[in-house]
Amino acid sequence: MSPICIFFWYPTNSLRRTLSRYGAGAGGTRNIAGNGALHLSLEDELASLHRKPAALVFSSCYVANDACLATLGSKLPGCVVFSDSMNHASMIQGIRHSNAKKVIFKHNDLADLEAKLQAVPKETPKIIAFESVYSMCGSVAPIEGICDLADKYGAITFLDEVHAVGMYGANGGGVAEHLDFEAHLATRESSEPVKRSVQDRIDIITGTLGKAFGVVGGYIAGSADLVDVVRSYAPGFIFTTSLPPAVVAGAQASIAYQREFMGDRRLQQINTREVKSQLDKLDIPVVPNPSHIIPVLVGDAALAKEASDMLLAKHKIYVQSINYPTVAVGEERLRITPTPGHSTEQIAHLVSSIDQVFNTLNLKRTPDWVALGGRAGVGMPIPVKVNPIWTDKHLGLDDGSAPVRLEGGKRSLVRKEAVKIAEKRLIHLLGSGPSVKDIPTMVAAAA
Ligand SMILES: Cc1ncc(COP(=O)(O)O)c(C=O)c1O
Fold first, then answer.
1. Same-domain pairing of 215 and 282
2. Are residues 222 and 304 in the same domain?
3. Residue 75 catalytic?
4. Which atom of ligand 1 is found nearest the CA of 209?
5. Residue with the nearest Cα to atom 14 of ligand 1?
6. At 198, is the pLDDT very low, low, confident or very high (cuts 50, 70, 90)?
7. What is the DSSP string of 290-355?
8. pLDDT at 8
9. Could you tell which of 62, 135, 140 is best to mutate to test the pocket of ligand 1, judged by most ligand atoms within 8 Å of the CB?
10. Buried (b) or exposed (e) across 279-296, using 16+ Cβ within 10 A?
11. Which of 324, 272, 336 shows the shortest CA–CA distance to 299?
12. Are residues 136 and 268 both part of a single domain?
């Protein structure tokens, strides 16, 4: 079994059980025959994950972002949407569909956002739409600063946590939750908001069920009123067949499990640190950032594609090249995302393969970028100090509770206690689940 299969063993098991009990399809739209107790149960789980009063599930987060922004932007009279310049296509499309006025602010630039907010009358309805982790460069939004500006200028905050849910936060709620890590950890049994925490200050959080949670689908979470407006008016929610029951149960199992068990997200960060550190020792240029994304700067579209092809053909490693228009011309890169399932041996193979590709194609290393005055944050005259979002303390590196990296053929850990707790959340819908003895025996590692 591959590391990824083990990683998703528990959700897959729930998916299989739901399929035999409820069949393949939902049978209709949410308003006509396609609304099951499993859908409602998933929405409760999501609302509770983000400690919001309500949540609404869509067929993807592309649809969720489009539907939510299009609905709110069109229902709030004269609304102006302030959109980060690096926002995902789904948000851009939602804003376009709303016909609201759009104002683009410079990526993660609070001064530019404030200047643009100031130019709009206070009484005008406003939405600030942004992401937590930007997947092409790994940058992280100044979420707290954006909340301060939203308070000051009377704006609704709309935060896409697609690249963070399941991977950040004591409960896997994303970066907004992570910013008050200890407070959320101390109250993890609760679904009540931590008052004035960053997560509490965000009006609408959106996320995907298709990345860290390993299934498919998307959602919004927010106040009961906001969610109700979207439920009542968004065509992307109303006029489409709802997600299949097995997918819905698999998603809930995955979320419930990840809420209980921090080991996977901690190990992802430990692997990320390891890859970044090994690349740095070889002067392989990595665009600095505080997240799990590792953008290796190549700086040329043809060479980035050639490097990606060579990694696959010669070294059996799939790493996508990212070219214009996703990134600026001259900032082309390879984008690597370590998972908790990657072993020490796989990481060593990745790093030595990249090193060989850099030699073969004569790609620029960090000192070459320094000589050129820097590019995309690499080799800049004044280096930017970046601290990882997951501190040593969060990772358990200070007290020895950090998870152990996989090596020597050891497989990923499934935390039996987390399976049992997650199982209870679905028991009324799926009956009793796997007995503890059926759960595969895994490597012993701390959470
Ligand atoms: C930032 C962002 N938002 C939304 C989406 C859409 O999510 P989904 O794949 O669930 O449609 C993506 C997809 O990669 C994304 O990167």
1. no
2. no
3. no
4. 10
5. 162
6. very high
7. SSS-EEEE---HHHHHHHHHHHHHHH----EEE-TTTS-TT--EEEE---TT--HHHHHHHHHHHH
8. 64
9. 62
10. beeebbbbbbbebbbbbb
11. 324
12. no
Number of structural domains, the chain? Answer: 2
Q: Which of 310, 190, 203 is nearest to 259 (CA)?
A: 190
User: How many angstroms does the Cα of residue 421 sit away from the middle of ligand 1?
Assistant: 29
Q: Flag whether 255 is in a domain.
A: no
Which protein residue has the closest C-alpha to ligand 1 atom 1? 88
Place of tokens 């206070």: 122
* Whole-model pTM over 0.90: yes
Q: Which amino acids bring their CB within 6 angstroms of ligand 1?
A: 60-62, 65, 88, 90, 131, 135, 160, 162-163, 208, 210, 218
**Structural domain harbouring 178:** 26-243
CATH number of residue 233's parent domain: 3.40.640.10
The gap between the terminal CA atoms of the chain, to the nearest Å, is 22
- Residue 87 Cα to ligand 1 midpoint, Å, equals 10
Distance CA 128, CA 107 (A): 12
Among residues of the chain, what percentage have pLDDT more than 90? 85
Structure token digits, residue 332: 């082309």
The helix (H) or strand (E) run that includes residue 386 is none
Are the C-beta atoms of residues 185 and 150 closer than 8 Å to each other? Answer: no
Catalytic residue among 116, 211, 276, 364: 211
